[in-house]
Amino acid sequence: MNYGSLLIPPNGYELNRAVATTYSLDLETLTAATIALGVQENTDSAVANTPVAMLRTLQKVADKVVVFCEAGQTKIPNTPSPLILLLEKMIVTVALTEINGTFPSFHPKTWTLEYENNEGEKLYRFIVLSRNLTFDRSWDVSFMMEGSQKPGGKRHVKPLKSFLSFLSSWANNGKRSEHQFDIIRQLIDNLEDVKFELNRKEFGDFEIMPLGIGKEGADMRNDDLFKGYPNELAGITFKELTIMSPFVSTETIYYLNSDRFTLTGTRRRLFTRRSEIPKIKDVANNFDVYVLKDTIIDGEETLPEGDEGNPQLQDIHAKMYLRLKYPNHHLYLGSMNASNSGISRNVEMMIKLEIKNQYINMDRLCADFFGGEEESKYNPFEKVNLNTISEATADNTDEKELEHILKSVCRIEARAEVLCDETDYSVIIRFNEEDIPKKVTIRPLRALNQERALCKEISFTHLNLLHLSEFYVVTVSGMENSLSRIIMIPTDGIPEDRDKKIVQDIIHDKKSFMDYVAMALGDDLLELFGSDLEESHNENGTGNSSEHISISTALYEKMLNVAYENKHRLLEIEPIMQMIDDKNIISEEFRETYETFKSAMKLKR
Length: 605
What we know:
Blueprint: H1 3-7, E1 13-22, E2 25-26, H2 27-39, H3 51-61, E3 65-70, E4 74-75, E5 91-94, E6 110-117, E7 122-129, E8 142-149, H4 154-168, H5 177-191, E9 194-197, E10 203-211, E11 240-244, H6 250-257, E12 267-271, H7 277-280, E13 288-292, H8 294-297, E14 320-325, E15 328-334, H9 340-344, E16 348-355, H10 362-370, E17 381-383, H11 397-410, E18 414-420, E19 425-431, E20 440-444, E21 452-453, E22 457-463, E23 471-477, E24 482-488, E25 491-492, H12 497-506, H13 510-521, H14 523-536, H15 545-565, H16 574-579, H17 588-600
Helix pairs in contact: 2-3, 3-13, 4-5, 13-14, 14-15
């Protein structure tokens, strides 16, 4: 499914609040996701991909969404627009405590959403994915179910409430933490009386399985699939096992390959990435192993230039486990790889579905993967002969070391402070640790020429308003490679004028303001006069009186309709009006008209 279509509110509903989780985060992807949540447009629509639309969306939903991600796994945008700074209030980074020299990962990919219609009826949506909040084009899997407030759902939502409660413990990043905590706590309280329903003939019962959050969460080692792992004397048998996992570990596949699982006619299939095969070539003899063909992985290279932008590699990224043993058949979907870290260390989220054999089994599932029969020319997968696989020769020690250093930096307590003089701004970062890693640099996200070596106290000077944020770029350098990511550092003293400056950069003339109003009141208004307004104003922003009358009439009629149908949409305009005092952009006549409507409809923000 299209990611945006999973998030778009149902017809007649608007987003009330949402909590999302992801391992890696692309800020531009998050901006696109808010388009779906806020203006109910697919993320690739023409309306969505304009600065005015993005501003309107962020103004509308940024206070309703909290996004949790792994600390140090936020990508640096290609073009860090000032709009990205408005995402700060949405994001919480998670840095799990080191265990025996290894850093567990915060790895779930989920959305928990609450929508509401004009009658006050609420609808809930829970989404479990294998896909991160990035523009990666690998092959993933998604699961979505909806629920409403009715009896009978407490057993199913209890693990989800525990997961959200675990997340709330990380909403402790200073000035925003109270608001973020309130969003999560209200969602937890409202879920108490919600019943989620599958409404699909293929599935019976389901179980939400948060992993690695402590005693309140599920533990895959106590589930039927991995019961006793990694104890070789424990475990259960199965008739069929199909695994799709992009990353695997030798120990996990050895465990699932063991003869203790043998039943007469037992079948096992594994779909993974080609790079993982050397790890398992000696421990997967009971599996039929498949990888994507090179023509799929490299396929975008063959497209005509310009068709898809920059070509990207594709590979599987889905995580799913299909286990059949009469009378129990289960399909697991979510974020957990078939690896030691996934099963026993990371925080993950899986959904466990009870399935009916007549609808889903190994043959039917693999027929979908293969595009029909395994021998079909449309089959994107090829079977691997493990006997022909040589030992892995690639050495990624340097890369792993860079990741380890970055994770250690993310776990050093730090605080930043903005100082202001008459002409510009400066920022001081203080790290609360003496032992600071070497060959690491840091800079504010939008201050490209301000890179400093990481040390206990760092100062950045001669910054402007749009350089100030809680986003900082950290670069770790190794023998041959370097690794650059965004980290978040609580930063005190960012002036309120910064957000005002961001708005003024986008809403800089009458045309951009009217576009904003049109989108707030209804996109059909934009179609009514958007292009005419752009053409009828010269560089000084003036137009003739007949055009002005036509525009005012259309706007007045639309405001009347909106006031009747959904009067609270009028309030979406107010934050922008408070940030712009240029009469050439917002006329006194418009302000008076707006206040008249607001007073007549008894609206209060």
